[in-house]
Amino acid sequence: MAVEKMLRFVAKAQSYPDKRGAAARAADFREIADRYAETAAEDQASRCSQCGVPYCSVHCPLHNHIPDWLRLTAEGRLREAYELSNSTSTMPEICGRICPQDRLCEGNCVIEFSGHGAVTIGSVEKFITDTAWEEGWVEPLKPGAPRGQSVGVIGAGPAGLSAAEYLRVRGYEVHVYDRHDRAGGLLTYGIPGFKLEKPVVMRRVERLREGGIVFHEGFEVGRDATLDDLRQRHDALVIATGVYRARAIDVPGSAAEGVVEALDYLTASNRKGFGDAVPAFDDGSLDAAGKHVVVVGGGDTAMDCVRTAIRQGAKSVKCLYRRDRANMPGSQREVANAEEEGVEFVWLSAPLAFDGEKVSSVRASRMRLGAADSSGRRAPEIDPGNELSFPADLVIKALGFDAEELPRLWDAPELGVTRWGTLLVDGKTLMTSLDGVFAAGDIVRGASLVVWAIRDGRDVAEQMHKWLKAKAASERVAA
């Protein structure tokens, strides 16, 4: 019976949930796609070929049991599908919304290679977990038997929250420290609501809070306590701060009024969505309404910025990227969504200058792709004699993020870092140069995907558990 419900990719066409029309969705910050009806989710899950080597799982950083929960979904066994999905991920409905499935699971689906179109894995994952929340299948976080040891988690983004959950389940007292007034990190303040509505994040945070995890919000290490203070307070620490230092654009006018950082812009927009008072938005500095907007960059953050500007009522929105469409790092689905909503992409272009004390225009050079660089990608180079100029009242710099100087900021010079400023950790134990201080997520690997942060949080919790058990055993012997 189960086999009869699968392998339907020849007879059933690939079908994603319907998107709202571009004009309608550009008028608000709601998610742009509807959710599957149950029958549609079952039909799309039934397209899975149940291949012997599931490349979807292999290419998922969490190694989710994708073919298995697709089969359960096709059979209408949604609660079992959710439980299996939840067994490898602390945030399956979030990954279903924001993972670049076209580069990971769906991009490596066997039937995609056969020309039938990948199984719509992310949309099914979103459906089964949202259904689980509605039906009350998402159980409260149940702490393990108390161990008498406490852990401090610095950073309440996906890596920190994931680590906190796994450690609490093992019975540790867990305290999470974050400089923002709400937990979630980039999930809360960096990713716009049209990709991830904020109640989806907040219900995950509340589940952790109700499970006994203590959140210290508005807490900044280096201001409210030193790293050494926290080491004295807890048996172990994990640093999961992410990377937030914006990469600079070294061109004339980069400090002009109206030239802003992507994260400042996105945070202001998300705070307004929460109903916060945001002076820099309210005075127009971080509001695109009525402005000619130019976004520089080609990653997912740049896509978030251009699509936010459209929703704020910008007069025009252009995205400058120094390579061509095929070589941009952002999701091609996001590019397509942005184009539908009215964004103009200026491929093979890079800024030369931002003109005016208060920016009024952007001068850019046409680029061309030269020889491959060390990464194997063809390096962009200036195409002489080909310059462009655009009107601009707001320029948003979205060239990615680097690590902040944590040893200096936290008065912890002994904290080892790489030449890129990320934290040095032992490849096996995930411990930093400081005994009992671990690290996970982007602060170790550099700016990356949310799904990798969740994986790193899972991995570091396992290593911390081993270390804490050994520490407890040693202390018992010494006593």
Automatic annotation (TrEMBL):
Q: Name one Pfam family in it.
A: Fer4_20
- Keyword Protein biosynthesis appears in the UniProt entry: no
GO terms for MF: 4 iron, 4 sulfur cluster binding; metal ion binding; oxidoreductase activity
Query: Domain named FAD/NAD(P)-binding: which ranges?
Result: 151-457
Concerning SUPFAM superfamilies, the annotation shows: alpha-helical ferredoxin, Nucleotide-binding domain
Dihydroprymidine dehydrogenase domain location, by residue? 26-136
* Keywords (A to Z) from UniProt: 4Fe-4S, Iron, Iron-sulfur, Metal-binding, Oxidoreductase
Which PANTHER family does its entry note? GLUTAMATE SYNTHASE [NADPH] SMALL CHAIN (PTHR42783), GLUTAMATE SYNTHASE [NADPH] SMALL CHAIN-RELATED (PTHR42783:SF3)
Task: Give the protein name, as stated in the record.
Answer: NAD(P)-dependent oxidoreductase
Name its species: Sphingomonas lycopersici
The root-end lineage is: Bacteria, Pseudomonadati, Pseudomonadota, Alphaproteobacteria, Sphingomonadales
